[in-house]
Design a protein that fits this description.
Length: 243
Amino acid sequence: MSGHSKFANIRAKKEKNDAAKGKAFTVIGREIAVAVKEGGPNPDSNAKLRDVIAKAKANNMPNDTIERGIKKAAGNLESVNYVYNTYEGYGPAGTAIIVKTLTDNKNRTAANVRSAFTKGGGNVGTTGCVSYMFDEKGQIIIDKEECDMDADELMMMALDAGAEDFSEEEDSFEIITAPEACSEVREALEKQGIAMVSAEVTMIPQNYVSVTDEEDIKKLQRILDLLDEDDDVQDVYTNWEEE
């Protein structure tokens, strides 16, 4: 889930139990299959596959697992029938939620997403009902403890590579890019040996909503937990400002 405390949320996601890690590997495995089908199994000539491999490594997926996924996808191109879908809706207290899915059964996924919203007192809306509250951007997060480079030097490197913005937080650096420039900036940083916690195109809220009612918080967390548990769900974005 992407939220306000960017690095804290990413770190928490990585520290979840084995079931969560298994879910992440399932999602990335599907992304590998789609990338191979669209552009072939060679990452040197398939930018999308390079992006997915970088995501896999950021999630600590073993290299042999990545390679097996690529070989399996290359040998079963006809069986790869995953499709992307996006759902938008509202959670308690007027919070906005965007759900991105990758599935081989749209009916199953749509039913599960609607069920998650309903169980948490929310509702799925029409396309565009909340996405206007978010900006699609490339977002690169770097753990300060893993980076020896001076902040100003890192900022200039990122901006020279095509980044739009750079910010320093207590425990991390955040680099913002246009969606189409995220891969180029990530690869430039990789060439300089910069370790990244994450590098992906994401949906960043223009404004955040504070939820104070305990019951609303429980319901909202219920929606997010159910979505996170669903293997068809790739990413969940919300403008909830977690305390």
